[in-house]
Amino acid sequence: MSEVRAVSADPAGSGEATAEASLRPQSVLLVYFGDFVADEGVLVASSSLVDLLDRVGVGEAAARATLSRMTRRGLLRRELRGRRAYFGLTEHGLRTVVGGRTRVRDDGVTTTSRWDGAWTVVAFSMPETWQRERHDLRARLGWAGFGMVQAGLWVVPRRVDVTAVVDGLGLDDHLRVFEGTPAGPTDAGRLVAEAYDLDALARRYTGFLGRWTDTDGARTGADPLVRFVVLGTDWLQVVRDDPRLPLDFLPDDWPAVPAETLYRSLIDRLAAPALDRFRLETDVIPDPDRA
Question: Which of 13, 34, 95, 114 is paired with 186 by a 20 to 30 Å CA distance?
Answer without folding.
Answer: 114
